[in-house]
Amino acid sequence: MIHPFPDRSAMASRALGRFGTAGSGPTIITVGGMHGNEPAGVIAIRSVLHYLAQNQPEFRGQIFGLTGNMKALKAGSRFLSHDLNRIWTSPDELPSDCRDLGEEREELEGLHQEITAILNEVRGPVILLDLHTTSAEGSPFMMVDDSQNIDEYKNYFPIPIITGLIDRLRGTLVHFMVHHGHRAVVFEGGQHEKISTLENMIGAIWILLVKLGCIPAHLVPEFDYFKQRLTADALGLPEILDVFYRHPVQADDQFEMEPGYFNFDFVRMGEILGHDKHGLIRAPQDARILMPLYQGQGNDGFFLGTEMTLSDWAIAETDLANA
Ligand SMILES: [Zn+2]
Questions:
Q1: Domain boundaries, the chain
Q2: How far is the centre of ligand 1, averaged over its atoms, from the C-alpha of 133 (Å)?
Q3: If you measure from the C-alpha of residue 85 to the centroid of ligand 1, how many angstroms do you get, rounded to a whole number?
């Protein structure tokens, strides 16, 4: 276990930097630290931007780095009064309609302002990469909202893709971007404080830049290492996990997860997964578990999903279109 960011005052900047030339290719917006107990994303973005600035490689397009919840990062907690990744609820009116958000009002307005400025400045395709970590251990995965092209994202990263989950949440940054016609993906790099998580995140940024044609692979430091890491971590995991269940948690529920669950672990119908003031909480059916809550803050106890292959997904989509 590491504490990768001992000096939290260094998190105090919203804009982490940019690299590339306007109009020369796609725009990639990377965001780290939407949750204040997840500093690894900020460090990963800084690391990539630092390398680019030092080495000035040939580069098509532009990459921007932004910090999410600066106040919560300083405090080392997920959020102060509101989860910054659940309050992008009125995409057309932001930031005027964000009364009563307490400490997070300034964070929402600040991040919204930076993103809007970038979107107003750039031309051509934009993709946002939102970097997160989880309280449970387990392999990295990505999440998209169901309206996006799954095949395209599978092509970016050799790791499981989670569908059906973002659509169960309200007010995420991904929703905001998709609502405005842009692409957006969440990358979950692993457990909050592991060094491997940080490497996964740095790798994810580089892989995305290579896949989008911004930089050739041979100019990326340790590209094969990063790619092999992710591929090896995902061995034996489903191509797609389609989430069908979310266990909601209220602040006064006294929710406690049973110890020892990792992301993607199998659970059996009836298995005791946790308890709260109402009693035991059991799995409603056989499934794989995702993001079991092992930290004080958060409104999602755990998620359950069914594994699918890419061809299952294509068939389901066709059935839906024909229905
Ligand atoms: Zn997060």
A1: 8-233, 243-322
A2: 6
A3: 8
CATH for 8-233, among 3.40.50.12650, 3.40.630.10, 1.10.10.10, 3.30.300.20? 3.40.630.10
> How many whole angstroms separate alpha carbon 239 and alpha carbon 117?
36
| 243-322 carries CATH number 1.10.10.10 | no
Residue 202 Cα, ligand 1 centroid: separation in angstroms? Answer: 16
12, 37, 89, 296 from 8: Cα distances, Å: 8, 11, 29, 20
What is the rounded average pLDDT for all residues in the chain? 90
Distance 322 CA to ligand 1 centre (A): 36
Tell me the per-residue pLDDT of 205-234, one tens digit each, with 9 for 90 and over: 999 999 999 999 999 999 999 999 999 988
Encoded tokens for 248: 């909601």
Query: How much distance in Å is there from the Cα of 34 to the middle of ligand 1?
Result: 6
Alpha-carbon distance of 115 to 128, in angstroms, equals 10
How confident is the model over 145-186, as pLDDT tens digits? 888 888 888 888 889 999 999 888 888 999 999 999 999 999
